[in-house]
Amino acid sequence: MCNVGYLDLYFQLAGILSFNKMKNLILYSLIILSFSACIPDPLPLKIPQAESKVVVFSQIIPNRVMIVSLTRSFSALDFNLNNGDTMGQNFLNSLIVDSALVTVSYDNRTDTLLNTGLGLYVSINTLQTVGKNYRLDILTKNGERLSSNATIQQQVTFDSIQPKIIRTIADTTVTIRLRFTDLPETNYYMVNYYTNNSGGGIDFNNFFSNGTNVLTRTDLISDLEIENGQYAKTIELEDVKATDSLAVSLSNISEDYYQYLLQRKQSGKLVQQIFNEPINYRTNILNGYGFFNAHYPDLYFFDLKKY
């Protein structure tokens, strides 16, 4: 509704103020009137909620197991800290997809993964052969059917990797020098850094016996960045202490998985992703979210107290 109260004000002031002052007042008031006189009523805004679906992640621990993690997506618009919503254990438990039938098929055989709880499904029988196609099939207790396909990429290995502790009077810095050779054709690489930091964290690769391993950093590398076929770099690990144990993994990954991880990395950390505006991530999961990947990492472990 338009505001017409300004006109009454003009007439009341006309008998008091000089003509010049009145002229200036009218000019200023008309400017204000042009912005505020006709403010439309607010329109109701309804944002459609994204459908809750199963989210899939997978990982191969070389010569050990294949792991598939199943959780359930939820709308950030339904999560409101002002209403008392919290990221407590009960809420996290509600996101776990348990009691599902998870199989991986390859070479005319099918392996059924073992449900180990917490939404984790493990196979110790699945062969991990480079170039083979693996089909993932999931049937949840709610009757949801999901599927995906992935091919294990050729393994890339470190040519050299060496941590270094730089100690000064003011501070202690952990760095690591790594080098690897770019494989033929077009390739994409991922380097992950894990510690056994007691600060906690969730990761499905239980590299450390106490189960408190934390993914502290992920570097994504396209071979367009690699000169003369060699990648060599010294990395400063800001979140790693000289008293930690450190695991570093190098993987050759598919372009689709690279783009998926790049999108997630650009959107920020997990908590930021939850409370930011919804983002439609890439996925190779039919009827679900996430990514079924089949990379074969090269792993190195270091006890930094020895350096």
Which fold name is given in CATH as the topology of the largest domain?
Immunoglobulin-like
Which secondary-structure class do the elements indicate? alpha+beta
CATH level-1 class of the largest domain: Mainly Beta
Inertia-based shape: globular
Q: Nearest-angstrom radius of gyration?
A: 29 Å
CATH architecture of the largest domain: Sandwich
Q: What is the element string, with H for helices and E for strands?
A: HHEEHEEEEEEEEEEEEHHEE
How does the major sheet shape up? 5 strands, mixed
Please indicate the count of domains.
Answer: 3
- State the share of residues found in helices, binned by percent: 10-25%
Strand line-up in the sheet with most strands: 5-6-2-1-15
Number of helices: 5
First and last CA, distance:
73 Å
Average pLDDT number: 76
Low-confidence stretches: 1-19, 30-36, 198-211, 269-279
Kindly state the number of beta strands: 16
Strand composition percent: 35-45%
